[in-house]
């Protein structure tokens, strides 16, 4: 059976609605990947985490190195669950460095990751878009690999496939490229990429982050929500009867606070003084201390500079929680 080189789906000619559909099983790409690559035409395929968990169980039997890719913009508490699932040695890769301000203290971020109790042998921060620290990444992969097979895992949209494509471009003569997009679950099955005789990277489907907003909006909204350029933080001093509107996706209420929002520059963020009806939204009432962040999973985070009580109204099913400040 032939697999799509873009997403790993088994190629089939039987049903247009099923993953892996193609008009010719001798082709390298399924119809979905072809349309993503050439037209930006996103077709959502709903997956669950059962397959991902089964893949991790098989990986655990190998003892091979796992490259765990985590989006710097979306570091969240779901990583605690991964620490229970991955028993292999982990090279932790924090991706999308180019999205956060240049003033970011990278050593602090690397130390921040220790709280997730992962079996980490080393850590590195990268940017695939800027080719940042890829020589160091490639050296670390070769240093820590237990065999020629190295597994690449992470949450959906963490940048796994983009990272692999950059490694292929930099260090291999292979002309294959994995399909990438802002769409959740772009990679559908495991894909083996032979870099050379000594190294094979195995890209795996992303773990679904069930509280992530990207699972509950369409492709047009994703292009606004998922940042592609360095974020320009926005600071507000909120007083009573004021609401900070984060486009149509979230609303922040507080009687007295100073907040800084780290979110996509394409979002329409503004201050509002109008009373609003939030019956169609889920409301979180939370106490936040100075030096903590409010995380709206997938949308971004809000740095809080003084103790305050907040009401956060978000799309239903989207997770909001408080963490120690990342920046």
Description:
The chain is α+β, with helices and mostly antiparallel strands and 327 residues long. The chain has seven helices and 16 strands. The strands form three sheets. The chain has a six-stranded mixed sheet with strand order 3-2-1-4-6-5, covered by helices on one side. A five-stranded antiparallel sheet has the order 7-10-14-13-16, with no helix packed on it. Strand 2 (90-95), helix 4 and strand 3 form a beta-alpha-beta unit. The longest helix is centred in the middle third of the chain and has 12 residues, at 160-171. 39% of the residues are buried. The mean pLDDT is 85.
Summarize, please.
By secondary structure, the chain is of the alpha+beta class. β1, α3 and β2 form a beta-alpha-beta unit.
Topology overview:
Layout: H1 31-39, H2 50-60, E1 66-71, H3 79-85, E2 90-95, H4 106-112, E3 120-125, H5 134-144, E4 149-154, H6 160-171, E5 191-196, E6 199-203, H7 219-225, E7 234-239, E8 243-246, E9 250-253, E10 256-263, E11 269-272, E12 282-288, E13 292-296, E14 300-304, E15 308-314, E16 320-324
Parallel strand pairs: 1-2, 1-4, 2-3, 4-6
Antiparallel strand pairs: 5-6, 7-10, 8-9, 8-11, 9-15, 10-14, 12-15, 13-14, 13-16
């Amino acid at each position: 059976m032939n697999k799509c080189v873009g997403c790993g789906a088994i190629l089939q000619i039987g049903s247009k609605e099923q993953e892996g559909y193609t008009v010719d099983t001798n082709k390298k790409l399924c119809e979905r990947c072809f349309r993503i690559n050439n037209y930006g035409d996103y077709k959502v395929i709903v997956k669950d985490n059962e397959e991902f968990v089964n893949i991790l169980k098989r990986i655990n039997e190998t003892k091979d190195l796992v490259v765990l890719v985590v989006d710097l913009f979306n570091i969240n508490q779901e990583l605690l669950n991964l620490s229970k699932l991955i028993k292999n040695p982990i090279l932790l890769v924090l991706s999308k460095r180019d999205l956060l301000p240049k003033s970011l203290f990278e050593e602090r971020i690397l130390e921040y990751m220790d709280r997730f109790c992962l079996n980490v042998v080393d850590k590195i921060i990268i940017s695939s878009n800027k080719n940042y620290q890829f020589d160091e990444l490639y050296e670390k992969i070769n240093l820590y690999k237990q065999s020629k097979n190295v597994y690449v895992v992470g949450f959906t949209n963490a940048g796994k496939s983009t990272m692999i494509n950059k490694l292929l471009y930099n260090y291999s003569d292979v002309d294959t490229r994995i399909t990438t997009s802002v769409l959740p679950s772009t990679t559908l099955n495991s894909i083996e990429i032979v870099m050379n005789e000594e190294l094979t990277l195995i890209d795996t489907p992303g773990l679904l982050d069930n509280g992530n907003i990207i699972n509950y909006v369409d492709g047009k909204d994703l292009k606004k929500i998922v940042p592609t350029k360095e974020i320009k933080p926005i600071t507000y001093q909120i007083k009573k009867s004021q609401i900070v509107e984060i486009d149509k996706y979230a609303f922040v209420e507080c009687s007295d606070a100073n907040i800084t929002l780290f979110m996509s520059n394409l979002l329409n963020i503004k201050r509002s003084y109008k009373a609003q009806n939030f019956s169609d939204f889920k409301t979180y009432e939370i106490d936040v201390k100075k030096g903590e962040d409010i995380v709206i999973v997938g949308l971004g985070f809000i740095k809080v500079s003084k103790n305050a009580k907040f009401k956060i109204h978000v799309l239903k099913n989207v997770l909001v929680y408080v963490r120690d400040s990342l920046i």
